[in-house]
Every structure is written in C-alpha cells, then in structure tokens.
Amino acid sequence: MIRSAHLSLPNTQQDTLQGKDFIGEISYWSWVVLILSFLFQIAFHWSLMNLLALASVFLGWIVTTKIFLKRPMLEKYPLSIFLIIGFTTTQLYFPLLFTTLEGKSLLFNLEVPEHVFLHSTLALVVLLLSHSFYRLLSRISHRRSFSIMEKVGFFTAPTERQLWMMGFIGIAAAYYYFFTTETGREVTEVTGSAGEKFVQSLLPFQYAPFFILMGRLFGGKDVNLKRVVPMLIGYGAILFLISIGRNNTSAFMFGFTAVAFGYFLGLLLKIYYTKLFTLRNMVIAGFFLWLVVGPVADLRTAMVNVREHRSDVSASEMMEMTIDAYFDKEAIEARRNFDEQRDTEWDERYLDNVLTARFGNIKFNDINLVQSLKIREYDPDMLDFSIDYMLGGLPDPFLKALNLDVDKESIYSVSIGDFIYLAAGGYGTVSGFRSGQFAGTGMATFSWWYLLILAVGMVFVFYLYDKFYRYEEIPSSSPDQPTEKRMIFSCCGLLALTSIFLYFVALQSVIQIAPFLYRGWIQLSLLYLLMYHFTRIFSGSFMRNSEVAKTLKRIKI
Fold this sequence. Notes:
Elements: H1 11-18, H2 22-44, H3 48-68, H4 71-76, H5 78-101, H6 113-140, H7 147-151, H8 160-179, H9 194-201, H10 215-218, H11 225-245, H12 250-268, H13 279-306, H14 315-326, H15 329-341, H16 357-360, H17 363-374, H18 380-391, H19 396-401, H20 408-411, H21 416-423, H22 438-446, H23 450-465, E1 469-474, E2 484-489, H24 491-495, H25 497-502, H26 513-554
Antiparallel strand pairs: 1-2
Helix pairs in contact: 2-3, 2-5, 3-5, 3-6, 5-6, 5-23, 6-23, 8-26, 11-14, 13-14, 13-15, 17-22, 18-21, 18-22, 23-26
C-alpha cells in the first residue's frame, strides 16, 4: 500500500479533511467546464467542422480522464503520465477553453482544421499505444531501476542552501550568457563555443530556489514560509529584471510555472492536500488571472514593441525602453490591433492573450500542416535537413570519428519551422525561428510513417522520464502495520516539469526525439549531478568554516 509519509492521519480522516478526492474534483469540474464550453461553441459558432473538432476534444479528454488521470497510473508512471496529460491539455482542452473565454470559435483562423484535429487525435492514439507497450515492458522487467542513480546521489534531497547556490549560479550564467556574449540572444544549444554551451546549460538552475517550497516532492524538509517567501519574492524580482533585459518573459515565468506544475502533481499524488474551492483559493486564482490578462500581458506586448532594438542596445537600456513602452498604453493597444489585422503568409494568430497562447496555440499545428500540403510527401530537402538536424546534436569529435559532414552553423541558424516554410516557397526573414509542429513537419518528411517513428521513440522517452522518481520505505511505527512507502522525485526531474508538460519532446518534429535520447536526457542528468555535488561540497565547506569561526570566537582566539 502506497501512502504519503508526511501525514500521520488515517486515510478516512484525510478524506474527511480534504473532501472529495482531488483527482475526482479535477476530473468532475474539468468536464463541467468542457460541457459549458461545448454549449457556447454550438450556440455561437455552429458549423459541422466545429462540431467535429469538439468531438475530437471530447474523445481526447475521455482518454485522459478515464485512462490516465487515475491515481494507480500516476503512482506507477507519474512523469510519463504527466507528459500525456500535458499533451491532451495543450493540444485539445486548453484551445477550447481559451477560445471560449475570448468569445471565439475553436476554429478561429485555422485554415485546415480537419487536418489539425485529425493529427492531434491520431497522435493521442499513438501515445496511448506507446504507453501501453511501455507499461507492458515495465511489468515484464519488474521495473528495474537505475541503482547507480541512487548511489551517486540523484535522489538525495539537496538542502535549502544548495538550492540557493544553484539558483545564483543559474543567474550568473544568465547574466553572462545574455548580457556579455555576442551570440547570447539567438544562439541555440548546439552552436557556439563549448564554454557558451556549458553556460547555457546552467540556465534552468535559475529556478531551483523556488523548489524550496516543494520539499515534500524530493524528500526535503518543510520550511518556514514567513522566512522563505519574502526571500523568494526578492529573488523573483531579480529574475524579472533579467527577463526584461533579455526581452523574454519566458525566463521570468518558467520558474513559477515549474513550481505550479510541481504543486499540481503533488496534489494529484496526495503528497499535498487542499480543497479545490475555498475563498482563499478563489482569491489567489483571481489575482493570478488578473495578473496574466492585465499587467503581464501588457508587459509582453511592450517587450514586442522594443524587440527590434535588443541586438543594438545594452541590457540596462533594454530595461529602460521596456518600462517606458509598458506605460505607453496607446502603443500597446496599437500593436495588438496591428497583430489582429495584419495579413502575412506565416500567420500565428489564434489567442489574443500572449501568455495563454503559450498553453494552447494550435495555430502552429495549422500553419505547419498548410506548409506540408504545399510540398510533396517524402520531400528530399526536408529529409536531408531532418537527418542533419538529428545528427547535429552529436559532439564534434563523434561527427569526425563517424566521418559525418554536418554543418551545425548552417543547420541550426534556422528553425525547423523556418525550413518547412522556405521549402514550401515562403519568403521573408530566413532566421525567423518560426515554430515547427510535428504533424506538418512529419507529413512533409516521412508522410504517415511519422506516427510510427513517434510511437517507437516515445516508449524510450516515457522510460527515461520515469527514472526521475523512486519509492523509499518508511519504517513502520508498529510491527503490526505494513511498511509504508513514499514517492521521491529527483530535483532534476522537477526542474524539467514545465518542459515535460508544455514542450512535448517531439513538439516541432519527431526527429527531436533522437537528440533527447542520445544527448538531452544524459546531459540534463549529468549536469544536475555536477551541480548537486558541487553545491554539496561548497555548502559543507561553508558550514565547517562557519563552525570553526564560531568556535574561535567562543574561545576568544
């Protein structure tokens, strides 16, 4: 029997305190909202195509709530299930919810909606089959764990001091990378010098201090919120200034979304308990809703208004320009009107709010499928680019040893979205870093075979993500009681939560699975171990020196 060790109350008392099970509440109210959204769409945006799209959303949410959003599944496969929930939420549920809140049709500005929802539905079926096969393999192999990961400290809880150290190392990396290097603003993770690539790999650790609040997830201690929260607010202000200086709100929001996703995962697993609808929760939700649709949305638009200058001015000047642009409400409104009315060949308009668009903008699916219809299936240029993109993630010594001629600078100077756009006869900025989407790029490169590549690759992705957690036994308080266990996540996996939920590993192309398997996961894990042991040794040395200083002072030396 699996229980949360941090609570000593019996399950019946826990249920009484909590009310209805959190998963049950989430499932119930998600269906209430879904049905209300459906009725709105039918009443105000009736069309046969919209009805078929709504049917796709319903099917996807049935699969999610009836198969994956179940505690037994989450307790055995938490992060792989979290990935699937993220996929169905961002590709199906959120688009319906957010378009309804904006009074729009689910099909707003979609040119080929029939293709969009067909591919999303088929992709969900593929994920369902891949996860079923992955679970079968796990049962056959008895879910053997990487014992070496436990021995090297992968699941040992970092202290509060270590998390602060990781955070400030990440901030130092961000300052160097974005404010002192010439390529910092545009370079990708596989280009540039080895030093720049290493510095870039440290950026996710900026958000480590926020997980001080999530100690129960990784086996850490509960903290004094009155002491820690003000410190985190000040730390968040530093990240906010860095975000303005680098002209990117994602840098600021990423840490908060990771903590929010961590808390949500903890609620699903009964690591945390709360009543869903309380006055306190409603006030907090209302505040964050106002923040997202008001000040943060205005700030994001202000950043867009000054973005053309970010390569020409210093970070401090960019901050000053952004603040001035934020208070120029007329310019912000003019920009939004311009974005709504502009007619371009690469049109990303779907949701008005720039932040909610990050959680459910299926216009990227649409526009990539439009490009794929303009070029032939098995396009040789797309195939060559995809192979080079897949191999380009290998370190240079490997490429030389294998005698592979891959021009990394040329390949990664354009995004996957840029290339399919150009292959389809597009014009304009070559290095626009347009967002690709796996359905469109997959059809252009591999035709329907891309679904098979997705199916096979995701089995390994599920396996690796679920290596970011384990169960540890808790000594029983009585010989008559069964041994209790609690789930422990590695902080490495928690730092990647936003990417797991929002940025599907094959989001732009199924070929992205390969670099994740041979480089991304390994690099993430090794780097975390490096940071963990570095901060452990450094903090231990700091503590010893502090104790020595106290002793010397006490004996008056």
